[in-house]
Task: structure prediction
Amino acid sequence: MNIHHKFELEKRIFNRLIEHNRKNVEPHSDAVILAYEHGLQVLEDMYKTSQQEEKEEIAPF
Result:
């Protein structure tokens, strides 16, 4: 499994968890959604950074 496939899989999991908790009416679901959204943002930032580093390694000049 390459990094792009792993990223897409993890992103899909986060999005499903966010949607599931949006439909949930439990008292702490807003906090859970916020935590999942933050985790998703961190995942996306790390993926973008890794892609930029990959490009720099291939063409350093």
About this structure: The two ends are 30 Å apart (CA to CA).
